[in-house]
Amino acid sequence: MCEGGAPGASRQHGVIPKSPTDRSIMLQAINLTKRYQNVLALDSLNLEVRAGEIFCLLGANGAGKTTTLHLFLHFIAQTSGRALVDQVDVADDPLRARRVIAYLPEQVMLYPNLTGAENLDYFSRLAGHRYTTSELRALLARCGLQADAIDHRLGSYSKGMRQKVGLSIALAKQAKALLLDEPTSGLDPQAAHELSVTLADLARSGMAVLMATHDLFRVKETGTRAGIMRRGRLVAVVETANLQAADLERLYLDHMSSPEVAA
Ligand SMILES: Nc1ncnc2c1ncn2[C@@H]1O[C@H](COP(=O)(O)OP(=O)(O)OP(=O)(O)O)[C@@H](O)[C@H]1O
Predict the structure, then answer these.
(1) Best substitution site from 39, 68, 79, 182 to test ligand 1's pocket, by max atoms within 8 Å of Cβ?
(2) Can you give the CATH number for the domain in which 82 is found?
(3) Which residues form the ABC transporter domain (predicted)?
(4) C-alpha R_g of the chain
(5) Minimum CA distance residue for ligand 1 atom 18
């Protein structure tokens, strides 16, 4: 899809056209390391997230999850190693990398005085895309925003509703990779389930999703793989398909309580 496409150019409201067999690597960390003075926040991370995959990063507070997301977004610079987004090294060309990546922080920052539709229109234009009113409404609806809320000011929205606008912005900018930090914290179970449904839909459309979370239940519900981080290291990676939520919890607790392996 080209940037600045004409209205109507996006056949399925911002979906990246992909064949079902397209499983390109969208996010890749190669020995990615971040050190803050005495703290090794991320220690030689090697990770690949492919198109259509939902990879969940688990780990205790301070394990390095947010650091990982921020390195892919180039909010911070790595100490060593590489972070690639759709094969673009974010340190070499952060603007090009950011064009294909979308980020949903724990608190979605949007304009409270604009409506959901106006926020989406504004951020779509910033990303170089223009949509008709009906396309904007369809994007918001696809991310689960109720029709009667679309023209209300965002200041009146719940956290879950603001997230839906944030997800529709990711769709509108035709992001190939979506990063989320603790998206279900503070959501009620219904809102958390709706988020899972939308993430699964985006992944089916070919987006690669990387999510930092403490929510083991949603990891099982939504994730395709889960990685457990401990003190800056990725200590385990599991496929979620054949696991129960309780298995995931046991695995997580085992890794949290196992003795440190010497570097
Ligand atoms: N700006 C900074 N200066 C110094 N240390 C930092 C900085 N940012 C993060 N750290 C440290 O890096 C380590 C990893 O932090 P990070 O925020 O990535 O953890 P996290 O897994 O996201 O934790 P949480 O679940 O609490 O969000 C922690 O020890 C943290 O204190």
Answers:
(1) 39
(2) 3.40.50.300
(3) 27-256
(4) 18
(5) 64
